[in-house]
Design brief:
The strands form two sheets. The protein has a seven-stranded mixed sheet with strand order 3-2-1-4-5-9-6, with helices on both faces. The protein has two domains: 168 residues, Vaccinia Virus protein VP39 (Rossmann fold); 44 residues, no CATH class. With 249 residues, it is an alpha/beta fold. It is globular. The protein has eight helices and nine strands.
């Protein structure tokens, strides 16, 4: 159903939003207790550094894996601004071919939803982790709350990406013992019509200026306009931090 997009880095228009301090990092208090001063952490899908930067002041070394050039640039800039000199940034997509470095803790925060081959991803994550693996998910993937809009413009139901519930089931099927801690997600705010259309366009994979984008503009204005602006449907109600010990071979 995806419409063509301009070539380039998909995250380039969004990277600045993922710089530490630009968005609430509500999950971090649930992650921080795992950090020990002598640790090496592997941050898989590190984005703009929302987790890597605060972790760098609590552990000895952070290895950040990030395939997006725009996200890497944001992370490197944020690390320089924070004075974080113990973050290594790698242009890799996990699982990285030939990867040899191990870590005390591995973290995959909101970076697993759309991984098609999840078993090799987790196998590599566990293989390179000494103490604990951590994955962070919303109770539903981004865009799932816009299912009625998706169906209206694409003409078929949305097949939502797997999220927290499915990941927990997967770990159970893999025979892992795990713990889950949750925190309420940030409540959605009210935005302008242009902001709402821009957000929904990316989540519904529409090309800028397309007929379908014009269709969602009309529907968003009709369905979700309030006296103070556009209030899109509630997306994530809560966030889950899942931790488990890698198997000992």
């Amino acid at each position: 159903m995806r419409e063509p997009e301009p070539p380039g880095d998909y995250y380039a228009p969004l990277a600045a939003q993922f710089q530490p301090g630009n968005r609430a990092t509500l999950e971090f208090p649930l992650i921080e207790p795992f950090a020990r001063s002598g640790d090496t952490w592997l941050d898989i899908g590190a984005g703009g550094g929302r987790f890597a930067i605060p972790l760098s002041s609590r552990v000895s070394r952070v290895i950040a894996i990030e395939p997006s050039e725009a996200m890497r640039a944001t992370l490197i800039s944020a690390a320089a601004e924070a004075g974080s000199t113990n973050i290594e940034v790698h242009d890799q997509r996990w699982p990285a071919a030939g990867w040899s470095a191990s870590a005390d803790v591995s973290l995959a925060a909101h970076s697993i939803y759309d991984i098609r081959e999840i078993a090799p991803f987790l196998d590599a994550m566990e293989r390179h982790t000494r103490r604990v693996c951590i994955a962070v998910f919303g109770d539903q993937a981004r865009g799932a709350s816009l299912a009625p809009l998706f169906e209206a413009v694409h003409g078929e139901p949305l097949a939502a990406l797997p999220a927290l519930r499915e990941f927990i089931a997967l770990l159970g099927a893999r025979g892992r013992r795990f713990d889950v801690a949750t925190v309420a997600a940030e409540p959605p705010g009210v935005m302008s019509l242009d902001e709402a259309v821009s957000s929904a366009r990316r989540l519904l994979w529409l090309a800028p200026g397309s007929a379908k984008e014009q269709r969602i503009r009309a529907l968003i204005d009709e369905w979700w306009r309030t006296s103070s602006g556009i209030a899109l449907p509630v997306g994530r109600r809560y966030l889950g931090v899942v931790s488990w010990e890698p198997p000992r071979h």
